[in-house]
Write a structure and sequence with these properties.
Layout (H helix, E strand, L loop, with lengths): L1 H50 L10
């Protein structure tokens, strides 16, 4: 009975270690994807602001 409890605790510990490492990797990956996407968005917004400054069109009713 003692070894079943020790084995269950060991199995739970290994499972938490694996789940923790996977979640940690996913959090880091999502963070860097968000950084790259934010930089691309700001670059596209700056390019559009600079490129479209001389082309002002108005909607006429």
């Amino acid at each position: 009975m003692f070894w079943k409890i020790v084995g269950g605790l060991l199995l739970a510990w290994v499972a938490f270690m694996v789940i923790g490492s996977v979640v940690g990797f996913l959090v880091k990956a999502v963070f860097w994807i968000a950084i790259v996407a934010g930089a691309a968005f700001l670059g596209a917004a700056a390019y559009g602001a600079i490129k479209g400054s001389g082309n002002k069109k108005q909607i006429r009713p």
